[in-house]
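The instructor's notes for this session suggest beginning with a concrete chain rather than abstract definitions. Hand out the sequence below and ask the class to guess, before any prediction is shown, which regions might be ordered.
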Amino acid sequence: MQKMPENKFEHQVFKTELGWAGIVESAGIICRVILPADSKEDVLSITERYSSSYKVPGYAAEKIILYFQGRQVDFSDLKIKLNAEGFSKDILKAAARIKYGSICTYADLADKAGQKGKARPAGRALANNPLPVIIPCHRVIKKDGSLGGFMGSSGNLLKLRMLRLEGVSV
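After discussion, reveal the predicted structure:
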């Protein structure tokens, strides 16, 4: 995790197999990932809140595109800014360690983060994940095997599609 420089932010918008996605970064450090949406305008409406400066999609975008093609991608070499503290940061770091094609429960994730018995707060921390895909919060499900939440009411379909890309059936 990198310290965010005091530079201006730039955004990238690009097409994936599941729709348009985006990245917001500053000086090559990723601070926000926008998951696929139906239209480029939907993604631009989010990325432009952070930045009016457009950057041609690069290495990180290529990795996300490959992920949405169903390829196993290692994101560990990307420079990221994790805008979280304390409990939330612990949960997001634990989620970052969930391997491709694997799932865990919110309770197990809380345990792995040293926060035993805090499944619901772990879910709330994941709901604020600024770096989905890079920090794979979609790999966390409820104890009963159901998906749990993901990006609002329509997000569970995307969560299911992402898990299926990785060969996980829930």
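Then share the key points. Residues 9-69 form one domain. The chain has two domains: 9-69, 86-166.
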